[in-house]
Specification:
40% of the residues lie in helices and 23% in strands. It is α+β, with helices and mostly antiparallel strands and 536 residues long. The N and C termini lie far apart (70 Å).
């Protein structure tokens, strides 16, 4: 019988048929942090802050706001109740590999409808840790697990202690690293070093980009959020005019601010000059407020922004003041790189860079859009973007112009649009304003010429480049292999002029277009479409 027992160093053969799934015992499964419920309370209060402000305004003005208060209490209670159920029912564990499958992250949840999700570790593309003000208040974090299955995170665990979130991320990354092969050396040959070389995951990351406070101040100061400020002010005056009017009568009797506001709302046209001056003063105040808001938002959103590159080529972004983000950027899923330079930044030799990915979920950003460089100098732009797109060199690109006939089409379009505004102003104020129509036509032609001089396109190796924008210069870079659909379209006026647009769509924008090269000669647009389709 001793011959039937294999030697200690001999491994038994793996079974040929699929074996049972080896799962952790219930006592090995992990659960969320108890602060999950407390985080939900803070987040519910933050999401309902606007409704709470309206309820307080109604309360102080003596109006009935009982329905709003009941609605706030109901919605907030539901959010907290859902968080309590999520805390009490969510369990997760990393199941070990079997003979037929690799390790997987298994998450069980649900009170009435039980749900069990298994995410293969090999399919995980991003592991993002974020901490907003609620998470930081209780010392916890939120971890999101991304795969290529869709635009949303495949798994979302909130909240975990910061140590547990970092440990789970490290454990998942460790399972993704391939095991080193053991090579048998000939007898008598000693290894070159007693310590094995560091794996790519163990080597330190390289900081590609780090934004200083000065950079973020410049980024905010060269952009303004005046539209948001004016919209908020007009909305507040429209909905709260009565309450504000009574407050002004009590707090600001006879003050210049009150006079200006009353003229804006009650002007009958007899004191037009004073009304215009008051409106100009409000516009200047809105410009200042928008400028300060832009600076503040730039600091809050991109505080300590860094972009790091690991030895294996992976990029990681870390940023945020109130919400701290630790996000991996998937280079392999890059669909479009966008370089934007408003007129002020362009005069200073600055720009910002964003990237769009397919099926990516990035917290508090537009779906699939990631900020890579909040502010960057134009002279080092190519070096920075080379970390994201191979072969990127716009200075060496062979930029091509669109058809010169495009000037006529753009001039006609600008004339029609401006004429509509001029006609509305003339009908509202005075028909004598129509005497300025010839100047309007000249201005429309000037804009069309400027647009023609700016609009360019190029094909550089495996990249398609397109540039446009008179006031805000925008350059879009699309890898040719990412183009899923190309369309040649022409409006009736374009068909009459022999022009067409070439629209390129990637997986991130199949229903729309990532880039549109306008007003090409029809034959050129079709030839360029065929060239991209054939990969030439």
């Amino acid at each position: 019988m001793g011959s039937d027992v294999p030697p200690p160093d001999t491994q038994p053969p793996l079974p040929a048929s699929p074996g049972p799934v080896v799962a952790y015992a219930p006592d090995h499964r992990r659960r969320l942090h108890l602060a999950t419920v407390l985080v939900a309370v803070v987040l519910a209060a933050r999401s309902l802050s606007w409704a709470i402000a309206i309820a307080l305004l109604f309360r102080f003005s003596g109006r009935s706001g009982g329905f709003i208060e009941v609605a706030i209490a109901g919605v907030g209670s539901l959010q907290v109740a859902f968080a309590a159920v999520r805390y009490s029912t969510t369990r997760f564990a990393i199941e070990p590999a079997t003979s037929t499958a690799g390790p997987a992250l298994v998450i069980e949840s649900g009170l009435i409808f039980k749900k069990r999700r298994a995410v293969p570790v090999a399919r995980i593309q991003n592991i993002n840790i974020s901490r907003d003000i609620a998470h930081r208040l209780f010392g916890v974090a939120e971890i999101k697990i991304e795969t290529a299955a869709g635009a949303d995170a495949e798994a979302n665990l909130s909240a975990l202690s910061l140590a547990d979130a970092e440990a789970l991320k490290s454990e998942l990354l460790a399972h993704q690293q391939p095991r080193a092969a053991v090579v048998a050396l000939p007898e008598g040959v000693e290894p070159l070093s007693s310590s094995p070389p560091l794996s790519p995951a163990a080597q330190p990351n390289t900081t590609v980009y780090a934004a200083s406070m000065r950079d973020l101040l410049i980024a905010g100061a060269t952009r303004t959020k005046i539209g948001a400020v004016i919209g908020g002010v007009l909305g507040a005056f429209y909905f709260l005019e009565d309450a504000l009017g009574s407050a002004l009568n009590r707090l600001l009797p006879g003050s210049p601010v009150k006079v200006v506001l009353q003229r804006i709302f009650n002007s009958n046209g007899s004191e037009l000059l004073e009304t215009i001056l008051g409106g100009a003063a409000l516009v200047l105040l809105a410009l200042l407020a928008g400028w300060l808001l832009s600076i503040g938002s730039s600091l809050v959103q991109h505080w300590k922004f860094t972009l790091e590159r690991s030895p294996d080529g992976k990029l990681t972004r870390r940023f945020g003041l109130l919400t701290v983000h630790d996000l991996a950027f998937p280079r392999k899923r890059l669909q479009r790189l966008t370089i934007t330079a408003p007129v002020i930044q362009r005069k200073l030799g600055l720009c910002r860079v964003e990237a769009r990915t397919a099926g990516s979920y990035l917290d508090k950003e537009s779906a699939g859009t990631a900020m890579l460089y909040p502010i960057a100098r134009a002279d080092v732009l190519e070096a920075l973007c080379a970390h994201v797109v191979d072969g990127f060199s716009p200075s060496q690109a062979d930029w091509q112009k669109v058809s010169p006939i495009a000037v006529r089409r753009w001039a006609l379009r600008n004339t029609v649009v401006l004429s509509i505004f001029l006609g509305a102003a003339a009908a509202w104020q005075s028909w004598w304003l129509l005497a300025g129509w010839p100047l309007l036509v000249l201005f429309a032609w000037f804009l069309a010429r400027a647009e023609y001089r700016v609009t360019r396109y190029a094909i550089q190796g495996e990249l398609v480049l397109f540039r446009d924008g008179v006031i805000t210069r925008t350059t879009r870079v699309i890898p040719r292999r990412r183009v899923q659909v190309s369309r040649v379209t022409a409006s009736p006026i374009q068909r009459y002029l022999g022009l067409a647009n070439l629209k390129l769509s990637t997986a991130a924008e199949l229903m729309g277009s990532d880039a549109e090269i306008p007003n090409l000669p029809r034959c050129v647009a079709e030839a360029l479409q065929d060239r991209l389709a054939r990969g030439q």
